[in-house]
Every structure is written in structure tokens, then in C-alpha cells.
């Protein structure tokens, strides 16, 4: 059976991976749409930042809130999830040398997600959904806004089922034997988290959709907030597991790093399953609808299971890189392995910067602000965006960008256009995001609220004066955003130009038979029918 | 002793982890200090 597909594979000349061509085409479209969503979200980001910079104050109030909604959906959901879908295809087919069991089903899922994303964006940009990313009731959007998100989530859910089916086929037909490689294992954890996330999303958005259409009279706001964050924050944990998996993969691809203790790393991934989704209750830390015991148990106890997992990875990956570098002879002093690392390779530089920004910026601020008592000071201030822009953007997005520099030539078979610019892109983006998030954090400490159009309160009855330092910090936010936006534009340009106009690398077509097929077939020899 | 030294494969990473931990302790303690100054218990 599996031999019918032997002619649909090519061999990657760099990595030796067997790539199933139908999976490669799906990878391509998911990645392209992801970059388009990133560009839309990035344009929204720079406009928002230039509005919050009081000296510029670019947008009118209605457009500001509309663009905040568009920024949240395109960045936190569409860019990230489309890219992860590409990652799912890569982890389940190319890494395992397996075929994609149902390419048509894959295209159906992709189209569902695409239609959902387009519909949601149309509703936002036509002003029918000025409800911000959270869309807390009683704020109500046009029903098609919720329908778009539901279609997108269902498409993603089907794609996760397809991923699981591919793992089963890989084993059953003998494409893969034994335990999964660490990258695939990490993505498997991300997919398990995704099932929880997407079901929570359905449980939240379907009733809200019915409410928006008038079939339900009321939505319980407290229950909505709980359900929404079961979706909204858990979605970021999928990113986390995917990002860490990418760190491992890039460590291997760039310097040949092998996890110091693979079982330990797998155990750390399992800790994500235990703690990370329940801990999304940290969004409700000042919510009076939930008891203090519930909030504190979830955020000051359960959350640490996930924190310990991240700490293990953050130690394990640099240790693997150090061990690999020392084996190559970079043994002088404590840090020769680091100074002689391939910093000119954008994938390595991006991965390393992603680890530093995530660990030193996102990790420490997240654990601190996730404490009930400290959250009282930080809640709804700009400190929170200061935290999650160094996790989701400086961490996940930068890691995804880094992987792109390998995906373009290896999976999309295009020679990179603008390699000289690619060398500097991760640095520009990382510096910009770090400056912007630092500005946000300090402005938040000085009391500046998040998602607020005008902190000068120019036409308000009551004035709330902010210090000159706070205003300066908002300037820093604008400045950082401009630098980061330049980095983002360079990335999008390189990705788009390479994907569409890059010189094609001809595929090396080779018959690929399942090497572990039960019929006793060896690689290259057809099994008995 | 030298045997133990050989087993320590990643001293640079260990140093980085210690720097990270100190950074976390400073940030965490500073936040509790700020809370104690802002949230008066009478």
C-alpha cells in the first residue's frame, strides 16, 4: 500500500530528509499565508505604537481600537497558527520520512482556516467588530466575526487530527520506528495542547456567536472570560511548545547540538501538559468572580510546573550547543564556544536571541506578574504587554523567523534572496522588540494603562497626570516599534521575494519505500503486496 | 578531582544560568518591595 506513494518523495540534498511532495505544497501555502498575516499585524502594530507615542498620536480613537483588534487577531492567532500548521506538516512528514495520509483533507483544513481568517479580518476592518482581541461581553461584534474565528479554529482542529493520523500512518506503514525525534515529540505536545485550546475556543465562541445572532439572550461574562482565556492563553502555550521544539531543531541544524539528556528534555515537555493550560487563570487574577483560592492555586502553584519545564529547556538547549561547540575544539575559557558560534547564520542568531529575550525578559516578568499579590500592581497596565511582547514576539516570532531561513531553501527549494540582509534581520528585530518592551514595562510601572488611546486625557473631565518619565517611556515604545518594524519588513521581503522569485532548486526525486515495513521490505525495495 | 572536572560538560551554560537566576531574584524581590511600599496594611 505504502509503496504506491514511493514516487511522490524527493530527497533533501542538505539534510537527507525524505520530503513528501503533497505535504511540501501544503507547507508552502500555510507559510506564505502566515507571513501575509504577520505583515498585516505588523502594519497595525506600527500604527498603534505611533499613536501611543503621545508626541505623534497618529490615529483617531475609532481606528486605534479597530487596529488593536486587528493586530491581536493577526499576530496572536493567524500568523502564529498558520506557521504552526506548516510546522506540523514538517514534523510529521519530513522529519519522520512519512507520507501525508490525506492531502485533500489537508487542503480542506487550510481553506477553512483561510476563509475564517479573511472573514474575521473583513469584519474587523469594516468596523463591525471593534471589540478588541478579548471581545468581552457585553461588547458585541457582528456574528460573522465569531463565525470567522470558529471556521479558523475548526480548520486548525482538523489539521491537528491530520497530524495525529500522520503519526499513526508513519508507524503503521513502517516509515518510522521507535520513539519520535525530540522536535516531533515537542510538536506532538503542542498539538495535544491545541486540542484543549481549540475545544475551549469552540465552547466560548459558539455560544457567543449564537448570542450575537440573537438566539441566546445573555452570555455570562464571567464564564466567557474563563473560557476565553482557556483559548486565548492556551493558544500561546502551543506557541511555547512549538518555539522550544524549533530551538532544539535549529541547535541541531546549525552546530550539530544533541540534547544532553533527551529523556530529561521530553520530561520537561510533559510538564507543559500538566501545568500550563490551567495556569491561564492568571488572566483572572483580579477578577472578583473567582475565589482567591482558585486563582492562587492555579497561578502560584500549578503554573510552576510549566515554569520548571521552561527552565529545563533553557538550560538544556544552550548546554547542548556548548557541548557540541566544545567537541569542535572551542574549549578556551567559559565562553569561547559562544563567541565562536555561527552568529553570521541568521537562523542561529535568531534562535540564540530568542532564547535570551524569552528567558531574561519574558520568563522572569511572567513569573513575577503571575503572582496574585504583585499582579495587583501590574494588572491592566502596560507592564503586561511589556511581558508578552518579549515572549510571543521576541521569543516565538523570532524563533519562527529563524526557522524560515532553513525552510526556504530546504522545504520550499528556493535560493535565498537578500542573504546579506538576512544576516542582520534577527538583530534589528530583536533590538527593536527589546527596546519597545522595556519602554512598555517601565511605562506600566509608572501606571500607564494598556489598550488606551490617549493618556493625556485631553478632553476628559478629570485629569490623570503622568510623569515626564512615563511620557518618555512611551516615546521609547514608539522608537523600539519602528526598529522592530524595519526588522519585520526585511523578513517579509526576504520571505516573499524568495518564495516567489528565488531561483528554484531542482528536486532530487528518489523512490522512497518505508524502511521499516512489516513485509520485510528494505529501503529501495518494494514490499510484497 | 580531574575526573569530576571532565564530567562538567557545560560550565559556560551553568554560569549563564546563575546570572539568569540572580537577575530573577533581583526582579522578584524588587517587586515585593514595591508592593510593600504601595499596599499599606494598617
Mind explaining what this structure looks like?
By secondary structure, chain A is an all-alpha fold. Chain A has a domain at 10-178: Up-down Bundle (Four Helix Bundle (Hemerythrin (Met), subunit A)), CATH 1.20.120. Chain A is built from 14 helices and two strands. Chain A has helices at 21-52, 61-94, 103-125, 143-172, 182-213, 221-255, 262-275, 292-327, 336-339, 346-369, 372-378, 383-410, 419-445, 468-501; strands spanning 9-11, 18-20. A two-stranded antiparallel sheet of chain A has the order 1-2. In chain A, a hairpin with a 6-residue loop joins strand 1 (9-11) and strand 2. In chain A, helix 4 (143-172) runs antiparallel to helix 5 and helix 5 packs parallel to helix 7 (262-275). The radius of gyration of chain A is 23 Å and the shape is globular. The model of chain A is unreliable at 521-529 (pLDDT under 50). With 42 residues, chain B is an all-alpha fold. Chain B contains two helices and no strands. Chain B has helices spanning 2-7, 11-38. The model of chain B has no long low-confidence stretch (mean pLDDT 84). Chains A and B meet through helix 8, helix 10 and helix 11 of A and helix 2 of B.
- What distance separates the N and C termini of chain A? 7 Å
Given the helix and strand composition of chain B, which structural class is it? mainly alpha
- So, CATH architecture of the domain at 10-178 in chain A? Up-down Bundle
**Which pair of protein chains has the largest interface, and what are the residue counts?**
A-B, 25 and 19 residues
Q: What proportion of the residues of chain B is helical, as a percent range? A: over 70%
Low-confidence segments of chain A, given as residue ranges, are: 521-529
Question: What ranges of chain B have pLDDT less than 50 throughout 5 or more consecutive residues?
Answer: none
What's the total number of strands of chain B? Answer: 0
CATH topology of the domain at 10-178 in chain A: Four Helix Bundle (Hemerythrin (Met), subunit A)
The rough form of chain A would be described as globular
Largest sheet of chain A: 2 strands, antiparallel
State the name of the first-level CATH class of the domain at 10-178 in chain A: Mainly Alpha
Q: Roughly how many Å is the radius of gyration of chain B?
A: 18 Å
